[in-house]
TrEMBL record:
Keywords: 4Fe-4S, Iron, Iron-sulfur, Metal-binding. Residues 76-136 form the 4Fe-4S domain. GO terms for molecular function: 4 iron, 4 sulfur cluster binding; metal ion binding. This is 4Fe-4S domain-containing protein. It comes from the Archaea. Pfam families: FeS (PF04060).
Length: 173
């Protein structure tokens, strides 16, 4: 459990540090974009106010009755989350996934048109983490890091293998 209050750590930083988890449940954040959401509404008016194109379901009430669950219908809600949730995307708007922005990619994923694991900034052979937070990388940066490190390592003796790991600690910037 993590609690993020006003003026505290940035939500993007928190989500990057949790990227290895299958699911993250957030409460509040009704104005956040680029994430699938389930709206818990006390009446149809509230459902209409809170629901948007990122909404995959409603608990309680909804204006049109689609994907509406009772609060105690945990199994059905969990099934919906497994089917329709979208991985956290980097927010780089790099276009490598074929969409013009991360927002468009997430909307397409919510609608079932894109695979939720197609975010190119988070895929591939290069993984950068700073203080436990995964950093999304554009393809050019991934290639640059990969080619540079591979070139350095290949000039060393007895360095066969497919996986290279580098860890830099206490580096002053």
């Amino acid at each position: 459990t993590a609690v993020l209050g006003e003026g505290e750590k940035d939500l993007d930083d928190l989500l990057r540090s949790l990227m290895d988890l299958d699911f993250v449940i957030l409460e509040g954040f009704k104005n956040i974009e680029n994430m699938a959401r389930i709206v818990v509404a006390s009446d149809e008016k509230e459902a209409e106010e809170l629901g948007d194109e990122f909404t995959i379901g409603f608990v309680g009430n909804d204006k049109n009755g689609e994907n509406v669950f009772e609060l105690n219908d945990v199994s059905a809600i969990a099934d919906l989350v497994e089917r329709k949730s979208v991985m956290y995307v980097g927010g780089l708007d790099c276009g490598s996934c074929g969409y013009s922005s991360c927002r468009e990619f997430v909307l397409s994923s919510v609608e079932g048109k894109a695979q939720t694991d197609e975010c190119e900034a988070l895929k591939g052979p290069v993984y950068l983490s700073i203080d436990g937070k995964r950093i999304p990388l554009k393809p050019f940066v991934k290639d640059l890091i990969s080619n540079t490190i591979t070139g350095i390592v290949s000039s060393l003796k007895d360095t066969g293998g497919n996986k290279i790991e580098i860890k830099v600690e206490n580096h002053e910037r």
